[in-house]
Amino acid sequence: MSDKRYAMVIDLHRCVGCAACDIACKSENNVPVEFHWSNHIIETSGTFPDTRYNYIPTLCNHCENAPCVTNCPTTAMYKNADGLTLHDTDKCIGCRLCQLSCPYGVIWFNKEDPHQNFMRDSEPAIPGGTSTGREVAQATDAPIPYYNPARATTYQGIRDRGMVEKCTFCDHRLAVGEDPACVVACPADARIFGDLNDMESPPSKALAEHAPRVLQRDQGTKPHVFYVRNFNE
Amino acid sequence: METTLLYQTQPGIIWDWRVAWDLSLGGLGVGAFLLAFSLWCLADRRYRPLAQTAAVIAPIAVAIGLTLLFSKLGYKFHVYQMGLNLAPTSIMWWGALIQGAFVALSAIFAFRLLFPDVSLLAWLSARLVGWVAVPLAVLTGLYHGVLLAVISSHPLWATGQMVMASVLLFMVTGVAGTLLVHMIRTAIFGARLDEGPFRDYRQGLRPLSLIMLVSTALLLVSLLAWWMELRFGPASDQQALADALTSYGTLIALAIVSLIVALALCVASLLADLRGRYFPAFATALLCVLMLGGGFAIRFAAVLGGQMGSSISTLATLS
Predict the structure, then answer these.
(1) Cβ-Cβ contacts under 8 Å for B69 (sequence gap 6 or more)
(2) In terms of CB atoms within 10 Å, which of A119, B61, B80, B218 comes out highest?
């Protein structure tokens, strides 16, 4: 029996599409530039002047019936007691079956050593005026310029080549009573995070107030990321 | 204006040609083993050399496939974790267990067939080993289809026809591969005296021709059913089919033509046998090559084509 049932509600009426969540996530979790644990779908349709623009933030849905967990041959992908879908790098063999199984495209594979862009960065933007990424990393005694050591408290700080990686709902922050970085960074308070087992929690209230929707419901994965309202509601 | 979707997922093929070859060689090995065991149990003694060829192909083909799969793993040093952690919900975990056991048992079976008088492993009855390996072979053949079929996020794979085609493919390619290798073996090293003239020998293998004929026909039917299910299915299925055909349409067409020609040759060989006419050896070899090529091409197109495009068109649908 889970102690908690963490979930996120994204209010699309409040979301302004600024992608601050994406950047906060990268910074908090030492995510390589080309990976997007926190991501977004942009949909445009219609003919000018009658056009529509939809912006749907995405992240790991921490599904109740997570196909990545079901199909993982080493239990490297697992559900913890709080309903989070997590990844154990000590068990991962890099078969990428989780990536294929995930209908949402939110699992990323390190084909090469991550953060090579900083290691290869040898030319400063302004010679004599700015430092290269590698210089910044060396000066701060960190693997990458924006390295967050707190990430390494519950998950490998920087994941190895040959392994997958994904959003953890910032489990290292939850462990110390803080909300995920994307939730904190959202300037419009569009991300509502909490425990669904607590009926008074913000996401429980939001789901009671608005009709929730999820991505690809027909996949039967029972996502824990819900969407409420629309831009024009 | 059409709806345009922008979503950055990791580019490139996730499971490449090595997985396609693993599934193809695995199917070939399973089919070869079942043929070897059937010939050894049921057929005349003069077919023992053919049974030996099939028995040797089985563990080698599956082992090569597994080696290719191993080379695909991103973090190979952790492969022992499959043994340390029980993952009964994972088809791949079961597949690793079953295939590992199958390779070991089929290798012992081949050894006992090749060297029946050697005292090493003499205490292991070939018949017993064979009977234990038969269900493992069938499960391995099923596994190669089920592994992809359980990935419901890929509509091209998540169909019953995927499993059906996998079973039929191991029957088609196992028999064709064994016959071809045996023909090459006898061409190089000469036929054993007890095998007799090729023409008589072939006629004795009429059941094999029937198996190839029926399996190939059923394979073509299952491919048609596969196409129909996707073509007339939901939008995501139609999109997946269109994406696969855009990238691998030519290969699929060539595979189907190969299988149809092989089917025609199969019918011709059976008719020739029934009328007591000579069916040239090169035509038999061509038939086998077409079946192997067609079968492998189908696997290749299914594995790689199934990953073409993505479900982005339906991903943005909130409900």
Answers:
(1) B18, B19, B22
(2) B61
Overall average pLDDT of the A16-31 stretch: 97
List of chain A residues whose C-beta atoms are within 8 Å of the C-beta of residue B150: 71
Residues of B with Cβ-Cβ distance to A47 under 8 angstroms: 1
Q: What is the mean pLDDT of residues A190-217?
A: 96
Chosen for mutation from B5, B8, B10 (greatest number of chain A CBs closer than 10 Å) is: B10
CATH number of the domain located at residue range(s) A6-228 in this protein: 3.30.70.20
* Residues on chain B touching A110 (C-beta within 8 angstroms): 74
Return the pLDDT at A92: 97
Assess A72–B contact: CB distance below 8 Å, yes or no.
Answer: yes
What's the pLDDT at B46? 82
> On the CB side of A9, how many CA atoms lie within 13 Å of its CA?
25
Q: Would you tell me how many other CB atoms lie within 10 Å of the CB of residue A123?
A: 7
Nearest to A172 by CA among A110, A99, A84: A84
**Chain Cα centroid distance, residue B242:** 25
- Give the residue from chain B lying closest to A112, CA to CA: B74
* Structural domains of chain B sorted by starting position, each given as residue range(s) with its CATH number in brackets: 17-315 (1.20.1630.10)
CB pair distance less than 8 Å for B315 and A103: yes
pLDDT tens for residues B115-151? 988 877 778 888 999 999 999 999 999 999 999 999 9
Cβ B27 vs Cβ B219: under 8 Å: no
Q: A167 and chain B: CB distance < 8 Å anywhere?
A: no
* pLDDT confidence of residue B197: 62
Return the structure tokens found at B24: 């193809």
Percent of chain B beyond pLDDT 70?
Answer: 94
The nearest CA of chain B is from the CA of A83 a distance in Å of: 18
How many CB pairs below 8 A link A and B?
152
The one-letter amino acid code at A16 reads V
Q: Identify the H or E element spanning B6.
A: strand B4-6
Residues 129-148 of A with CB under 8 A from B: none
Dihedral sign, Cα of residue A150, residue A151, residue A154, residue A160 = negative
- pLDDT tens, residue by residue, A53-86: 889 999 999 999 999 999 999 999 999 999 999 9
Q: How far apart are CA B184 and CA A213, in angstroms?
A: 61
**Residue of chain A nearest B76, judged by CA positions:** A93
Contact A100 B315 (CB under 8 A): no
A100 contacts chain B (CB < 8 A): yes
